[in-house]
Protein 1
Amino acid sequence: MAAVKFVCALLLCMLVVETMAATTSKTCLNVEKKLFPCLPYLKNGGYLSGSSPCCLAVKALHKQTKTTTASRAVCNCLKNAVKTIPGIKPNLAKGLPGKCHVSIPYQCLH
């Protein structure tokens, strides 16, 4: 009987971890979609106005991340995007919030 309980607990843990991973990947996919208008800037630099599609996306994403947990999740997605999307310049990604006049109380990209 103890073995059955252990197997059930193990399966439940695996289900929870798999659900969390799927949620994280879905969150990152949403973040990447929202920031798609920023790709030209993140790869090539240049001028960004506060009303550019990129900055509007940054501002909208910032408004949606009201909790520390949400902010950390978005930050992790951004770190992953910088590593995995070819051509993104980390220094441009790091400075993007400031270019769009969005203040974040911590530094996400180092």
Protein 2
Amino acid sequence: MFPKRYCYSAKLAITLIIIAAAHPTSSNAFKQASYVKRKVASNAVDHASTSITSFYSPQYVAKTTESFKLADLFWLQANVMAYCDNDQSAVQKLAFHRPTASLLLGYNGTSSNSSDQVLPFPTNRVQYVGVVVASGATAQDLLDCIKTTSASFVTSSTTNCNYSWTLDCDTFEPLAGRQFTTSMIMCAVSRHLSGEPVLGRDDIDDETISYLLVETSSKLYLIQKLPIDNQMHDTYQENLNRFRQEWSRRPFQYSGAVNIEIAITVVDMLQRLVSKNGEEPKDNRRIRLLDPTCGSGSFLAAAAQLWNSNNHQNESLDIVGIDSNFKCSDGASKNFCKLFGLERISEEEDSRGKRWTVSGVDPQSELPIRTAIYCGDSAELLSSKSLDGEFDCVVSNLPWNRNTFEYKQETSNCKSTEIITRIAEVVKPGKPVIVVSGSNDPALSFNAKRTFKELGFDIVGEVTIPPAGFSLPESGKKKNTVASDRQTNRNSNCVVTIVIAPR
């Protein structure tokens, strides 16, 4: 199970009743829904399904933060959390809010006891999470469902018959065939809710139930919001904000560096997968992490600063980064020196090439972090097996051939394939690898997912950033036809692929 800060605690006395009521009427109906759910995610490690699901009836829903381009990455992160908790079900995409690029995610719980349910929604990536009270494909279906279930969940929701509630709404897309206004459906729903509505913010207390009417193009949901462990969330958020600020002031800025939010999310998923697939005692164990194309060191820095910030496992890190560009490897070492507040670093050269060594301390666990950055050809260094053993995890932003002129190298699609082949030779069996690459256009010679499959890796998931087909909402301004066509026809910026090494 994940740390408590990733668990959303419902009012225990009502959640089971609400869930049972929201999915009437018999256990056979629930079993049938569970069967459909398992069919959707029959492959435990291949959760990637990029389409919006309309037939799916979740028990829990969550809305991701306003991410602009990273919505699918947050969805993949939620699926990784479910996968790491040995959950065979997938987190589904129910709706997409274009103006903010936020997703509505749906999930069916695995525990018969709601107090034990761990939800795969990272607190720093969601705006709210709730349990589904009622749902319907039309407004009348929703009202009928509320009528059917209200007696059950209202009488069990509180020991006080005069409990209070609030009702708000969130529209992702207008319901197909919509013939009502938002105020009309809100009034109709409120008529079927027992208890007393709260009319002023001063009357809201810890016992007040927060209902939310969520509208999508295919279904209406009435949900009860669940509380978030704000104390743990705030602590993690403080660590994130501190790292963002420190990294923004790094001395070596590289135009081809991966977006720092991508790096933070990728490192979070990598840490979870290492913990799931680890056999050693989790406390104080040593984790070897490799980035064979480290650039300015974004992935390595995120790992060094955040690896132990969202767990209590106290794992010490042994980080190895490689880059063939001297300016990048030298710049990465300077960035690490700044990150750990060091004045100087160890620099030496041997048969493996030039190497910088930076020793620091994990800000959360206070355990040592050793970082070695090499300047050289990663494929050659890995094939020579001169990096002192195998690795527990690998992360890489593979060459795209889109660098600025100053840093452009003689790389090709074949080079990325060779790097992946060498990664397969040095990563431990059953351990995770996450790579960022250019477009996975089938017409191109290189495709990360296909290459990993050919090498026997299990595919956990893959998403594009921004989501495939994503475009900004149209404004009232006069269009720039050339720019508009370029945006419509261009490929997605990058692809994130997560795999597990063959055992």
